[in-house]
Amino acid sequence: MEKGNISGVLQSPGLLAKKPIIGILMFVIGSLIFIILAYSLVTHGILMKWDLPIAEYFHNIALKSSPLVINIMIAGYYIGKEGIVFIAILLGLYYLYKRFWKEFVMVAVGFGGGTIIFEILSLSFKRSRPFLLFKEQIWPGSPNIPGFPSGHTISIVICIGFLIYLFVPKIKSYLGKTLVIIAGLSIMFYIGFSRLYIGDHYLTDLISGYAVGVAWFGLAYTSVELYFKKRYERKEKNNERGIHK
């Protein structure tokens, strides 16, 4: 990683534009997983049968947990919501100030589009959350909007995935790359697990959210990078033509 050059670190490495197959595979795999889970939800398929037992298992553990553990798990809600919004605004303002238009559009499309997709899917499926009647024993502030897919897991994949994408290609050591990836994945897991532990989501809500996040990551960021790559290539060709005239 370049030292003392935060601008270079926070700029896109352009790998998705060079190898769009990565983004395509992310979109296809993520979409397929979500479609399978959504179909199982609508048809009351076998994949949904484990949801309630798993939710009840963690709910019973949560009821016996210490206030410290509960507060750590509740923090996942705020980190996965307000924390994501803060990072998105910070990155957006930075890219706007630096006039890094490609990265600015990636943040706007990635984060903004993810929110819109969540709203559409959530209102379409209207799945109730696990413990609307008695989960207030753990956290009175729990939301009551539909829970499929999980908006937190969609957002965390889009956000942390983007940060990993920015940093990892510019880290020279394999150890450094590995540590950043492990840290990022750990945050993603923590946010999802905290939502399950508190009783705000079924397991399939979380998995479907991860799947949507992966799919949108692949589609949104790859599309933006390809657009700016082609735009740059057209500009270069026009410049060459101007020189030869």
Whole-number mean pLDDT? 89
Q: Tell me, what's the shape?
A: globular
What structural class should be given to the helix and strand makeup? mainly alpha
Q: Roughly what percent helix?
A: over 70%
Care to count the β-strands? 0
Give a concise summary:
The chain has 245 residues and is mainly α.
Description:
The protein has one domain (21-237). It has helices spanning 6-9, 15-18, 20-43, 51-63, 67-98, 101-125, 151-167, 174-198, 203-244. With 245 residues, it is mainly alpha-helical. It is globular and about 70 Å long.
Give the tags.
245 residues; mainly alpha
Itemize the secondary structure elements and their pairings.
Blueprint: H1 6-9, H2 15-18, H3 20-43, H4 51-63, H5 67-98, H6 101-125, H7 151-167, H8 174-198, H9 203-244
Helix pairs in contact: 3-9, 5-6, 5-7, 5-8, 6-7, 6-9, 7-8, 7-9
